[in-house]
Structure prediction request, 67 residues.
Amino acid sequence: MTDKNQIQGEGNYDAGRRFQKEEREFVKKGPVEQKAHEAEEALDGPEGEELERARRESGQRGAMPER
Prediction:
């Protein structure tokens, strides 16, 4: 019982659309400044070294801004 509407191919397009919609709503009305401040505190706190290691291992490009 294969429904063409359920076939997602190489990605889950429905989930992708939901994510993009929620991301736009967060940027528009969410506590972006608060979350940025929380992230900065986490990087400066005891878990900072582990977070930096995870960022490097994830293959994320771009350098962290100098503080």
Remarks:
- Helices lie at 13-29, 32-44, 48-57.
- The CA atoms of residues 20 and 44 lie 29 Å apart.
